[in-house]
Amino acid sequence: MTGYVYSRTVNPSGFYPFGLPTIAEGIVVPPGAVTSNAYDVPRLLNTMWTGVRYAVLDNVNLAAGVYWQTQNDYLAPPATCAGSGTATSSGKCAGGRYSYSFMVTYRPVRRITLYAGVMASNVYGGVASGYLHSQNIDPTIGARLEF
Predict the structure, then answer these.
(1) DSSP letters of the chain?
(2) How far apart are CA 88 and CA 79, in angstroms?
(3) What are phi and psi of 126, to 5 degrees?
(4) CB 95 within 8 A of CB 70
(5) Which of 62, 89, 108, 140 sits 20 to 30 Å CA-CA off 12?
(6) In degrees to the nearest 10, what's the CA dihedral of 31, 32, 38, 41?
(7) pLDDT given for residue 115 in this prediction
(8) pLDDT for 81-138, tens place per residue?
(9) Cis peptide before 139 (omega within 30 of 0)
């Protein structure tokens, strides 16, 4: 299984001096309540993932995945990006993230599934801005009872 998303985020094209109308008649988002100038330079975000699952036995499955994401530098001039890793000057600087995951599931009986997995991820550049750590390892273990 594989997927890809290309996302281009820009400032709104419309101007609503009296607020933004909603789907509910008579309810309006007040002017200034929503930031409308965050993307003076368009943000381009590329996201891709792929994964595989393999049945080792009738009741044991292995699964693995790879996830990758990158964004452009959309910091408006004259500002410039500085720093690296979690000390990058702005979340609008170029950067990305990538992650790897692995999971094993086991069905000892019909309605019970036991599972364990781990995901390792890394953020860099502008995406890492504000993170405490640029690398993370997340293990998980659990059980699911189906009715």
Answers:
(1) -EEEEEEEE---SS--TT-EE-SSTT-EEPTTSS---TTSS-EEEEEEEEEEEEEEETTEEEEEEEEEEEE---PPTT------GGG-S-TTSSEEEEEEEEEEEEEEETTEEEEEEEEEEEEEEGGGTT-S-SEEEEEEEEEEE--
(2) 13
(3) -60, -30
(4) yes
(5) 89
(6) 50
(7) 98
(8) 888 777 888 889 999 999 999 999 999 999 999 999 999 999 999 999 888 899 999 9
(9) no
Predicted local distance difference test score (pLDDT) of residue 46: 97
Residues 6+ apart with CB under 8 A from 52: 1, 63, 64, 65
Residue type, 107: R
Q: pLDDT tens-digit profile of 21-80? A: 889 888 988 888 888 888 999 999 999 999 999 999 999 999 999 999 999 999 988 988
Distances (CA, A) of 82 to 20, 76, 88: 36, 14, 6
CB 33 within 8 A of CB 22: no
